[in-house]
Design brief:
17% helix; single chain; 5 strands; alpha+beta; SH3 type barrels; 5-stranded antiparallel β-sheet
């Protein structure tokens, strides 16, 4: 499952970045706290397939589908 698949108020544990993600984006997301094993929660889904808002640690980040879809997560039950 990828980050984009998380529904509003659903959480998942960050697993990995896809090889497709450019290194600059990967590094920036890591600065925001996207690290393997971190809990990520989808806080909000915007209408019309707009960006989704995620919380990881103390950071709140808005990601578009092209970025969120290359971040692997495992859903927390």
């Amino acid at each position: 499952m990828n980050l984009w698949d998380l529904k509003q108020h659903q959480s998942g544990t960050m697993k990995a970045f896809s090889e497709e993600m450019p290194e600059a984006y990967r590094h920036r997301l890591q600065e925001f706290g996207f690290q393997k094993g971190e809990l990520v929660t989808c806080l909000r889904q915007t209408p019309f397939s707009g960006p989704k808002v995620y919380q990881v640690g103390d950071s709140v980040v808005s990601l578009t589908q092209d970025l969120a879809s290359v971040v692997a997560v495992e859903v927390s039950e």
